[in-house]
Amino acid sequence: MKKWLKAAREKSIDTAALAKQTLRNRRGEGYVDTGIKILIAVVIGALLLAGLYVLFNGTILPTLTQRIKDMFNYKG
Fold first, then answer.
1. How far is CA 28 from CA 24, 25, 45, in A?
2. How far is it, in rounded angstroms, from Cα 6 to Cα 39?
3. Which InterPro entries match (predicted)?
4. Domain extents for the chain?
5. Is residue 76 scored above 70 in pLDDT?
6. CA dist., res. 10 & res. 3, Å (int)
7. Element (H, E) at 21
8. End-to-end distance of the chain based on CA atoms, in angstroms?
């Protein structure tokens, strides 16, 4: 019985030391950090694509279409 108690005590001390070491560990990345980085990248990419869509459909393509029509509508 004494051997069993001694083994259990040593095991609990080892487990507590391992838990303390794990909690003090500050290296590496967690799942939350990686998820937030991916979410930020997706949001920035969507904003960039939306901005380009508005720029091309609202400004560039109508002007380009009008210039092409003017170029082929030469009455001279």
1. 12, 9, 26
2. 50
3. DUF6133
4. 2-72
5. no
6. 11
7. helix 2-24
8. 112
pTM of the model: 0.48
CA distances from residue 70 to 6, 10, 64, 65, 73 in whole angstroms, order as listed: 95, 89, 10, 9, 5
Tens digit of pLDDT for each residue in 26-68? 776 678 888 899 999 999 999 999 999 888 888 788 888 888 8
Summarised one tens digit per residue, pLDDT across range 17-27 is 999 988 888 77
Please name the amino acid found at residue 70: D
Output the six-digit token pair for 51: 């901005």
